[in-house]
Amino acid sequence: MGKFGLYHIDLKNLTPGVHEYDYLLENKFFADIEGDLVQKGKVQVHLTLRKSALMSELNFHLEGNAVVPCDRCLDDMDQPVSTDARLIVKFGKEYAEESDEVLVIPEDDGTINLAWFLYEFVALAVPMKHVHAPGKCNKEMSSKLRKHRAVRADEEDDFSDNGFYEDDSDVDQPTDPRWDALKDLIENNNN
């Protein structure tokens, strides 16, 4: 049945009503799917499928951890994942994605494989920036980054005392004097 046979649902022959499914996405699933962002993890999926004569509504709840590389030290880190997603599946003549949530599948086939959708839900739940908590980055890598970092003479080092980057919001960034002049105009206008 193939490595993703477990995620195959025959909507055409499914009886109308509510059906529930549970999946556990583990390292083998992520390795088999060969996605770029998440290659390991453990995510529990609960699917509630409501089938009617016209369409099927699939509501997913995903909870667990995805393992992704830290943006700073490149070591693996656990990234908590908690998300809900919905997919509406309708029958038609040929496969089509009408929107992010609406999918048309051929009525003759009447089946859907959820594996790639499940991977995408996990990947989309991972934040753009993923870094270890302060003090948890690989100390050797952080030391090398600090040693080889180019710093202008008028710029302060943005590493904290423990050899890790400080949060971007804590570092005072020089501003363009033109923006400062505009800011002064706005402040003077409001007074």
Proportion of strand residues: 25-35%
In total, how many domains does the architecture comprise?
2
Mean pLDDT: 84
What is the straight-line distance between the termini? 72 Å
Radius of gyration (CA) equals 24 Å
- Low confidence ranges: 157-171
Number of strands: 8
Biased composition (Acidic residues): 154-173
Region (Disordered): 148-178
Protein name: DUF177 domain-containing protein
InterPro entries: YceD (IPR003772)
Q: What do you see in this structure?
A:
This protein has 191 residues and is an alpha+beta fold. The protein has 2 domains: 5-125, no CATH class; 139-149 and 158-190, no CATH class. It contains 4 helices and 8 strands, in the order E-E-H-E-E-E-E-E-E-H-H-H. The strands form 2 sheets. A 6-stranded mixed sheet has the order 2-3-4-5-7-6. The longest helix has 14 residues, at 177-190. It is extended. Mean pLDDT is 84; it is low at 157-171.
